[in-house]
Structure formats: C-alpha cells, structure tokens
Design brief:
The chain is α/β, with parallel strands linked by helices. Helices cover 39% and strands 22% of the residues.
Length: 167
C-alpha cells in the first residue's frame, strides 16, 4: 500500500506506527526513481543527521543488491549524499532552519517530520516547499510517527480533509 501511495501521488503524507516499513519503502522508491530517471535531485531530510545517514545507508544497501545491469554508475558515494552518472543526486539534510539554497529538488522526503522541533521545521518547510513545488512533476513524501499538535499534525489533517468523500 505504501509503494502504491508513493507511485500514484505527487504529494504523500503518511502517519504510521514505528517499524511498519515506511522508511524502507520510501528508500526503495527513491532508488527506483533515480535509477529510471535522468537529471533528478532528491533531498532526504530528517529530525537528526543519524536518521539521514541511516536512510542513505539503506539506499546504498538496496543499490548493492540490484543486478549489475540495473545499477546506475556511481559518481559520488559519500556519507551525506550520492551522485550517479545519470546526473541524479541524493543529498541529505539534517535538522536545519534553512532549506536547499541553490539546489533544485525534484523529490523531497522528510522522515520523522513530527519529531523535528518547530523552530527548525517551520522555517525549513516555508523555505523549501515553494522551491520543490515550483518544479514540474515534483514529489514530496512526508512520513512520521505522531508527536502531539505541530506542523505535521496540521498538514496531515489538511490532507485528510481533502480526501475524496471528506468534503
């Protein structure tokens, strides 16, 4: 269900309990996205750098399991990001108030959105969302476990209100 949601929606927000496969599903989707596209930029943001590193490590592990003929050529293989010979990049962003200055984003993934403190996530979201949404065929994925009333709560409730049959 998670993979179908990611494939079929330009913007997706998922609230789920821990250990249900949301991060690994998005990691698989991101690798598929950069494998079968050219000149795409992906940004992975999370509550902490260690979470970003963990997601990038999952993507690297999945890449290593791909058959050789499906693997795009690697240009850069670093802790904070990857780049491929298809002109695709995956960059990480830990907790930060500033968004991707000078970097166009085709796919933005924010993991554990509700865990990012308001003083970081609000300026990041306000600075990043217009940059991403101005790109044609962009994708935004947000996943998190709930954590009280915050920006994640607001975005999730607005998304639910806009579901067919909830008007």
């Amino acid at each position: 269900e998670i993979m179908e949601m990611l494939k079929n929606n330009q913007k997706s927000i998922l609230m789920a309990s821990r250990q249900v496969g949301k991060t690994i599903s998005v990691s698989i989707f991101i690798l598929h996205y950069i494998t079968f596209n050219n000149n795409k930029n992906v940004m992975i943001a999370a509550d902490q750098w260690k979470t970003v590193y963990e997601i990038l490590d999952k993507i690297k592990d999945i890449y290593a399991e791909l058959p050789y003929f499906l693997q795009p050529g690697i240009m850069t293989w670093q802790q904070k990001g990857l780049s491929f010979d298809t002109d695709c990049r995956i960059l990480g962003q830990g907790r930060s108030k500033s968004g991707p200055i000078g970097f166009s984003i085709d796919l933005l993934y924010i993991d554990e959105f509700a865990k990012i403190p308001k003083n970081f996530i609000t300026p990041f979201w306000v600075g990043t969302y217009p940059t991403v949404s101005s790109i044609q065929n962009h994708k935004i994925f947000i996943t998190s476990t709930p954590e009280g009333h915050n920006l994640f709560y607001d975005l999730f409730n607005k998304a639910e209100e806009n579901l067919p049959g909830n008007k």
